[in-house]
């Protein structure tokens, strides 16, 4: 296993950064990903298991897009919860849920201090969130602990592409282009943070090794734009 990697920013710093950009977050996501973020989340939603009843939890829910899309897809879950550390991102999620007349519980909670009971969750998602968590190993252990046997975990995240020339190209975009575009509409600091969080992050293979060693089985892997974004899914077998 590689050494434990931690996000260079503290939870407090990350939470303030997302608070600051909360009202522009959806717009900037669409702009900076050239509208691809919606396509990636759609793949996530179609990969989620359909159930007769069950508990669905979206970690680092942000403005609630995954939570909303999962309910709209009528996957059969009986309870929907979104957690996040940023109160203002949760406020945006609340507004969107109200507008859509959908019900979900929104809780200010960190993935590292995840208070869900052991074996209580049927499906857990985290989209563009794990990289932002300070102690990723701790969060992954909590996800494993709180999933029921047979429960599934889906992670959608940015990664550095494996091919060197592609990772150099993406780091150039993230370091020198994205903060300038993002900075036109929101605090530049939040977008300088993205490449830093990427450099300190696991590869998707390392995440898979970590979860497999805990007792999960990889059931899904899909790569987008040359491996700079990946969707990985796991099932808890024991
Ligand atoms: C890039 S946004 C992703 C939001 C949403 N999941 C999406 O797909 O658009 C990252 C979110 O992770 C949240 N976050 C960061 N660290 C967290 C932690 N330790 N626990 C829970 N949420 C966290 C941030 O507040 C932010 O809302």
Structure characterization notes:
It contains nine helices and seven strands. A seven-stranded mixed sheet has the order 3-2-1-4-5-7-6, with helices on both faces. The model has no long low-confidence stretch (mean pLDDT 91). By secondary structure, it is α/β, with parallel strands linked by helices. Bound molecules: S-adenosylmethionine.
Along the chain, the helix and strand elements come as HHHEHEHEEHEHHHEE
Residue runs with pLDDT of under 50 for 5 or more positions = none
Query: What's the gyration radius in Å?
Result: 17 Å
Q: Helix/strand/pairing class, anyone? A: alpha/beta
Name of the CATH architecture:
3-Layer(aba) Sandwich
The overall pLDDT average reads 91
**Got a strand count?**
7
Strand order of the largest sheet: 3-2-1-4-5-7-6
CATH secondary-structure class: Alpha Beta
**Proportion of beta-strand residues:** 15-25%
Which sheet architecture does the biggest sheet show? 7 strands, mixed
**How many discrete domains?**
1
Helical content class: 40-55%
How far apart are the termini?
22 Å
Bound molecules: S-adenosylmethionine
CATH superfamily: Vaccinia Virus protein VP39
Number of helices: 9
Principal-axes shape call: globular
CATH topology: Rossmann fold
């Amino acid at each position: 296993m590689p050494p434990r990697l931690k996000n260079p920013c503290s939870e407090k710093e990350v939470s303030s950064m997302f608070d600051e950009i909360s009202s522009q977050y959806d717009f900037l996501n669409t702009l900076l990903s050239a509208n691809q973020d919606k396509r990636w989340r759609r793949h996530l939603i179609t990969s989620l298991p359909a159930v007769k009843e069950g508990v669905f939890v979206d970690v680092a829910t942000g403005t609630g897009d995954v939570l909303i899309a999962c309910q709209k897809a009528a996957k059969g879950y009986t309870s929907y919860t979104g957690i996040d550390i940023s109160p203002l991102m949760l406020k945006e999620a609340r507004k969107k849920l109200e507008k859509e007349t959908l019900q979900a519980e929104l809780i200010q909670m960190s993935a590292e201090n995840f208070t869900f009971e052991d074996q209580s969750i049927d499906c857990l998602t985290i989209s563009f969130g794990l990289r932002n968590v300070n102690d990723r190993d701790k969060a992954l252990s909590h996800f494993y602990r709180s999933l029921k046997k047979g429960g599934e975990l889906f992670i959608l995240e940015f990664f550095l592409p494996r091919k060197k020339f592609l990772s150099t190209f993406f780091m150039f975009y993230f370091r020198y282009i994205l903060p300038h575009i993002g900075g036109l509409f929101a605090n530049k600091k939040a977008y300088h943070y993205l490449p830093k969080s990427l450099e300190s992050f696991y590869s998707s293979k390392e995440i898979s090794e970590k979860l497999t060693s805990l007792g999960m089985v990889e059931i899904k892997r899909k790569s987008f734009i040359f491996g700079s974004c990946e969707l990985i899914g796991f099932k808890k077998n024991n």
